[in-house]
Every structure is written in C-alpha cells, then in structure tokens.
Design goal:
247 residues; mainly beta; 1 helix; 16 strands; 34% strand
C-alpha cells in the first residue's frame, strides 16, 4: 500500500521536547501501546538498541506491515516525501564522522521514490546505482530545530555554502549532515532491524535512545532548509524523552 504523507497535530510539541532535558527514568527497551498512529506500519509498539561485541543492533516493532507503506511518487525532487523509521540517540555526532555536538544523531531507515541518496550502493540489484531510493535503506542523520520548517520543527542539519566540515567517508554529497553507510535493514512482518558495526560499541553502553516514525519533505525551494521533518506518525516513548538505554 502506498499513501501520501499526512499532517499530525503536536509536531511542534514533539520538536520542543527533542531539545529539552531528557528523562532520568530509563530502561533497556521501550514498550509502547498500539493504536497511536493512523497507519499500522508506523504504529510503534517496541524500540530497542542492543550492543554485542563490535555491533549496535537497532530494533523496532510496529503493529503490522512494517515497510509496506511508502510515499507516493511525485516525479520531482522538490517537494517529494521521505518516510522513515528513526532511532534518535544521544550518541555524539563525531562518533560516526561528523563534527562534535552537531545535534541529535539518529539512525534512520528511509524510503523515497523520487530520488536516490545512496550513490555507492545498488539496493535493488539492477546494476544502476541511481534508481533505488524507494528501497528501504539506512542513514545516519543529524537533526536540529529550524522554524523555517515550521514552528518548532526539526530538519536534517544543512551545511552552509562554503563550509567544509568533517564528514563520514560515505557522505552522499548532499549539503546536509547525512551519511549513507550501506547497512542493509531487515524488514519482516512487524519488525524493522539494522545491524551497525562499531569498533567501540561497548563504550556506548547506556546511551539513551527513542523510536520514532516520521515523514520528511524536500523543501520546494531546494535551498536551506533542504530536508524538513513535517509529519510525526508515532513516538515510542510518547514524549521523545529518550528513556531507552543501549545494552
């Protein structure tokens, strides 16, 4: 099933909570009640981050049909939609190759049929590296607030023209803080999972995280802000308090 993204009230409140102090009450996993999202594929019931040797494994469970719902193609990059399963964390952005303390570092599994932002990888296996944005794939992104996206809204952080910040080696060349590392998500039934290699994974034990399903949109102007969070489908904690801890 495909659908166009929909607006949901409370986006501004969600974003305000993102930049507030996080709750001190934490647990390894986050369990959520079903029925908080209109679409079952984005209705989070569980979010978890596991540490095992040199790996982080990001897990999310939804009510049903994980990955089945993707944006309706528009035929244009400007104004096109991105659907995502996201784990916001308190991992420092420098850990994955960006500058230090750039914003909220999040692992995101995304699909967007109108553009391809993984130029090093051929997710659909057809020999063309530039036509598989509609296949669910992984990104590291850095999120920051920007009222240009709407009052209290978040965006993927833009790189100002002329600046050359530190970037991961698999940065896809877009003028935003995004990485396309090629970690393949596994989507099966109600589950979304992606395994991420980390040489210092055990040093991240106890780091805070949450789970979010959301829609983003490429700005019509194609200028900063380039990629805004416009829809929040569900939040595992209910308030983006990042109550989970990676263990």
């Amino acid at each position: 099933m495909k659908m166009t993204s929909y607006k949901r009230s409370g986006v501004a409140a969600f974003i305000m909570l993102a930049v507030m102090s996080f709750s001190s009450v934490q647990a390894h996993e986050i369990k959520a009640e079903a029925g908080n999202a209109k679409i079952a594929a984005f209705d989070i019931v569980h979010s978890q981050v596991d540490i095992n040797d040199h790996w982080l494994t990001f897990n999310m469970t939804v009510s049903q049909n994980a990955g089945e719902t993707t944006p309706t193609p528009t035929g244009n990059l400007a104004g096109s939609d991105v659907f995502s399963y996201v784990w916001p964390t308190k991992i420092d952005s420098a850990t994955v190759g960006f500058e230090k303390e750039q914003g909220i570092l999040a692992m995101a599994i995304t699909a967007h049929p109108d553009f391809d932002d993984t130029p090093l990888f051929d997710e659909n296996g057809d020999g063309n590296l530039e036509n598989d944005g509609n296949v669910w794939h992984s990104h590291w992104v850095v999120l920051v607030p920007d009222n240009a996206c709407g009052e209290g809204a978040l965006k993927v952080k833009d790189i100002p023209e002329g600046e050359t910040p530190a970037l991961p080696v698999t940065w896809p060349g877009l003028p935003i803080l995004i990485d396309s590392p090629g970690y393949s998500p596994v989507i099966d039934g109600k589950s979304i999972k992606v395994r991420v290699p980390f040489r210092n994974a055990k040093e991240l034990k106890g780091v805070s995280f949450d789970g979010v399903t959301a829609g983003l949109r490429v700005n019509e102007s194609m200028h900063a802000p380039l990629l805004c969070v416009v829809d929040v489908f569900d939040v595992a904690s209910g308030d983006l308090s990042l109550p989970g801890t990676a263990e």
